[in-house]
Amino acid sequence: MSDRQNNIVCALDHIHEWIYETLRLGEDEISMIQIDGQRSRAFIKFTNGVHMQRLLRDSARKLD
């Protein structure tokens, strides 16, 4: 029997909704999403650097 404490299961089929609702990114801001399920990572390629910088700036403000 495996120990399942402190685990979270994420349905990767909902990653698009999470990106739009949580990160507040629109379809026009993203050119590609690559999901690495083995490492539990999602790579987002932006259409330009302005959108990426806005996300980083907004994320840094939330941490303050």
What do you see in this structure?
With 64 residues, the chain is α+β, with helices and mostly antiparallel strands. The chain has one domain (12-63). It is 34% helix and 20% strand. The protein has 2 helices and 2 strands; from the N terminus they run αββα. The chain has helices at 15-21, 49-63; strands spanning 30-36, 41-46. It has a two-stranded antiparallel sheet with strand order 1-2. Strand 1 (30-36) and strand 2 (41-46) form a beta hairpin. The longest helix has 15 residues, at 49-63. 0% of the residues are buried. The mean pLDDT is 80.
Give a quick precis of the structure.
With 64 residues, the protein is an alpha+beta fold.
Give keywords.
globular, 34% helix, two-stranded antiparallel ribbon, 64 residues, single chain, 2 helices, alpha+beta, 2 strands
